């Protein structure tokens, strides 16, 4: 595997490629939300740093260095990750696995590379690392990964070169999902990609559980039936659905907004493709026509959903909040 085989992140990859073919610095910080692929890219970069013939596309993949990294047996490459069940990487580990090791010369490659999951490097761990990060031995390169820079001391930030990983496009996420699961239904891949906000790891988690696809159907049906459902039905059956899905209430609200967006598309450009393909497209279009759904009505519904999310985050009474939202939705489409 080389950079080109990883989907997206072109700007990060071109900066890393340039670093590999010039004189790379001694400390890199990969920044990006959880699930975006920081460690995968960091491991490719590490392979390139250790490879005997690196190119702009990373390690060659065939030299002993590349093979040892791939097989997790390279003596000059170490990863410092949090142990399962632990909150942070222990400072003793920073000392034994890194500080006590940096001074020893590399065995096979011309460098030593350390990958550190800095999301789990507490303040004490960061302080322990600081001096070495400031004046690393010539043959050492550190790669730190972090989801939020605010977790790091300013002194760590100023000593590392930031490589930012940006959300992927929906198309890129779909490609990644297809690559890992060729059997995936196109409408499901599109749904996971939209819902994941461009984070491939999150989209992959979603595709492994069925809730999103099931709940998308339920939410769509609930919204499509709004004009004909009675208030009593909404407050009993409608409420029951939200009560069952209490744990992921905010996700359900996000799904509702996605379906409302599709209705908006059906109002403004009836011929365009909607997210889930043919199965619901006709139903959404005919609902929009039949009940004279306008952008104003969709706006009112969307407001109802947004207020429910706000009330939920503010720890409002769940039942009251959901019932208020359902009634506001009903009023919105009338
Ligand atoms: Zn190589």
- How much of the sequence lies in strands comes to 5-15%
Average of pLDDT? 92
Named once each, the bound ligands are: zinc ion
From N to C, what is the helix and strand string? HEHHEHEHEHEHHHHHHHHH
Q: Cα distance, first to last residue?
A: 56 Å
Count of folded domains: 3
For the secondary structure, the number of strands is 5
List its salient traits.
334 residues; five-stranded parallel beta sheet; Rossmann fold; 15 helices; 3 domains; Zinc Finger, Delta Prime, domain 3; alpha/beta; binds zinc ion
Report on this structure.
This protein is an alpha/beta fold and 334 residues long. It folds into 3 domains: 3-164, 3-Layer(aba) Sandwich (Rossmann fold); 168-207; 210-333, Zinc Finger, Delta Prime, domain 3, CATH 1.20.272. 55% of the residues lie in helices and 8% in strands. It contains 15 helices and 5 strands. A 5-stranded parallel beta sheet has the order 2-3-4-1-5, with helices on both faces. Strand 2, helix 4 (91-99) and strand 3 form a beta-alpha-beta unit. Helix 2 runs antiparallel to helix 3 (64-70), helix 7 crosses helix 8 (186-195) and helix 11 packs across helix 15 (318-333). The radius of gyration is 25 Å and the shape is elongated. The model has no long low-confidence stretch (mean pLDDT 92). Bound molecules: zinc ion.
């Amino acid at each position: 595997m080389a950079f080109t085989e990883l989907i997206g992140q072109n700007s990060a990859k071109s900066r890393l490629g340039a670093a590999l073919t010039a004189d790379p610095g001694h400390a890199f910080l990969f920044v990006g939300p959880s699930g975006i692929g920081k460690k995968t890219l960091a491991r490719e970069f590490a392979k390139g740093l250790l490879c005997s013939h690196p190119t702009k596309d990373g390690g060659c993949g065939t030299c002993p260095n590349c093979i040892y990294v791939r097989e997790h047996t390279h003596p000059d490459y170490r990863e410092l990750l949090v142990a399962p069940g632990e909150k942070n990487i222990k400072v003793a580990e920073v000392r034994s696995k890194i500080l006590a090791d940096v001074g020893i010369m590399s065995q096979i490659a011309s460098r030593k590379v350390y990958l550190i999951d800095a999301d789990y490097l507490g303040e004490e761990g960061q302080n322990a690392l600081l001096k070495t990060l400031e004046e690393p031995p010539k043959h050492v390169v550190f790669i730190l990964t972090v989801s939020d820079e605010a977790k790091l001391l300013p002194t760590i930030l100023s000593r590392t070169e930031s490589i930012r990983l940006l959300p992927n496009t929906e198309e890129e996420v779909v490609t990644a999902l297809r690559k890992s699961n060729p059997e995936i239904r196109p409408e499901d891949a599109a749904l996971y990609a939209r819902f994941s906000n461009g984070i491939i790891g999150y989209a992959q988690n979603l595709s492994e559980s069925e809730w999103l696809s099931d709940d998308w159907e339920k939410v769509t049906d609930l919204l499509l039936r709004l004009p004909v459902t009675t208030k009593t039905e909404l407050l009993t059956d409608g409420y029951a659905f939200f009560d069952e899905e209490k744990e992921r209430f905010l996700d359900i609200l996000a799904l509702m907004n996605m379906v409302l967006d599709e209705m908006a598309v059906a109002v403004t450009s009836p011929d365009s493709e909607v997210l889930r393909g043919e199965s619901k497209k006709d139903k959404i279009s005919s609902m929009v026509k039949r009940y004279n759904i306008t952008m104003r009505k969709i706006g009112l519904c969307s407001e109802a959903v947004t207020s429910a999310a706000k009330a939920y985050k503010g720890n409002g009474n769940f039942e009251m909040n959901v019932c208020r939202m359902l009634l506001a939705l009903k009023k919105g489409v009338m």
